[in-house]
Predict the structure of Carbohydrate-binding protein.
Amino acid sequence: MRRLLVALISALALLVTGLATSAPATAARSVVVMADWAPYTQYAVGAVVTYEGAAYTAIQAHTSLPGWEPPRVPALWRAGGSNPQPGVPGQPGNITTTVTNNSIALSWGASSGTVTGYRVYEGATLKTTVTATSATISGLGTCESHSYTVKAYNNVGESTGRDAAATTSGCQNPDPPGKMAGAPYLYMGWGNPPAPATVMNATGVKSFTMAFILASGGCNPAWDGNRPLTGGADAQAISAIKAAGGSVQISFGGWSGNKLGPACSTPAAFAGAVQQVINAVGPAVVDFDIENTDEFENYTVQDRILNGLKIVRQNNPNVKIVVTFGTTRTGPNSHGIRLINQAKALNVPIDNFTIMPFDFGGSNMYQDNVNASEGLKTALKNAYGYTDAQAYARMGISGMNGLSDQQELTSPATWTQIRDWAKSKGLTRLAYWAVNRDRPCPGGGVRSDCSGISQADWEFTRITAGF
């Protein structure tokens, strides 16, 4: 899935180039409130348009292009909207939060204009109404994550909302045995890869998942299938991470490219290729991204990898083994269930089963991540006879920051909720794709070097470091 982004980026670049040369040689038009949506038009946050008889409100500033019609790009537009009325208050200022075991206090900057008061919503539910610029939501449980929207109002109407998310204190779960440091993916093959030491200093992150090891001319491992294991950009990045006190996980496979699973003819040959990488890099964790039809849906290759991992563990008892694979919104599909059941049947010593809960038609990415993870928990309990706590301790989440390939939106606030849920349940791995994209570019779409949304530099990495 992640490597599908490479192909998408190339296609998008060609599309944009074509549009740039064929677009009318006129300046982008200013938005007209409640006008029909049109391409080559500048839209500000809060702009309201109609398209095919329905109203939409812009949630990111951007200049529209053909193919970016509101119902097709939920990262830029939300359904619904009304003609803003003169006299409505301005948007409240940024929100700060303070938490206790059973309450979340919100404080925000005052709105401009005439303000009667402020309404605090959780989803569509009105939680409280106040006249000051602060409110406290009480009666909550410990270690609960909540998201709120504050809107100013007067006798004319409500302002645009300001969002915030927070988690109550009192989380008692100690780190489970075998927990791995939060380790976002870093890919040296594209996306203007940042200097890892710079990111470490800025965020406190201590580990990265380096991607990807592929096959180079048969059962021979290489970075991306063409860069040497030692002496190149990947090895230099790993040396810098270790020199700064960090560790690395090494990811094998991914969505596309020539992979070792199909290229190596036997489990022993596969394990031998993995051993070359371990000897060259010295990772704390080896992560096997088993994806697509050539590995995930090919049961002969699935079994070859699983049996090879038994040899890897025999030769490297202190290196943790992770398998990472896609999921539906409710948990692993039939191929994922088969992988889990076969790992149990073959007695493969897998430390962590990580799912990738994105590119699956998600709408509420926090709840979809929770639902998919609960489905994984059920599959592990069915296969291994685990308790809930034992299953959680063998689970991980690998997300995609900002806009996914399918335009699903994971904001920093949502990623914080996902992280806090994972910590509260005792999951042992958290990653996302990718550090290369952990930079702002609101309205930029799906890109290799930024998230497509408004954020601070390295904000997702800083959140992940808190795992």
Summary: The mean pLDDT is 88. The longest strand covers residues 145-153.
